[in-house]
């Protein structure tokens, strides 16, 4: 099961490279690795740029991070599911969804039982945003066939919207009936909004 990918960051032979979310701490890991392994393709100047530019979302930085991750993978370093997840996410943000989908299909999709739901959710979102609705449905059904149950209603809602856009009314009804218990629980977005509301209310009272 995804034996070629090491899921624990502590098993990596280089600077604890467990790349997942787009955060400054992960950019620092990549930048540090790049500084320690600089070549004519990835100089110290390039790694400093990755480290110092906190606006990872900028168009100028995203291609640099994609190049660094690809170069590391080509050297056999950082081959974890999280690294590929970071790469897929960065590619889509750089308007390279086709390439992101190819990497998923070639490196990850062959063993869906071992892929974290957050990565599956990311791919469902990529298919949704790029109008690959049939592929989204296929992925979701493959996950179900592996015995994977969606952990949140956010995922079910995305599939529900997809069924509606495809005109699959019966499939939509069956989906909602099958996972109706999820709608009785607050999603991660609901919890986040709740925390933000409580914080704002507290600030109002103290102010």
From TrEMBL:
<feature type="compositionally biased region" description="Basic and acidic residues">
    <location>
        <begin position="198"/>
        <end position="207"/>
    </location>
</feature>
<dbReference type="InterPro" id="IPR011990">
    <property type="entry name" value="TPR-like_helical_dom_sf"/>
</dbReference>
<feature type="region of interest" description="Disordered">
    <location>
        <begin position="185"/>
        <end position="207"/>
    </location>
</feature>
<protein>
    <recommendedName>
        <fullName>Pentacotripeptide-repeat region of PRORP domain-containing protein</fullName>
    </recommendedName>
</protein>
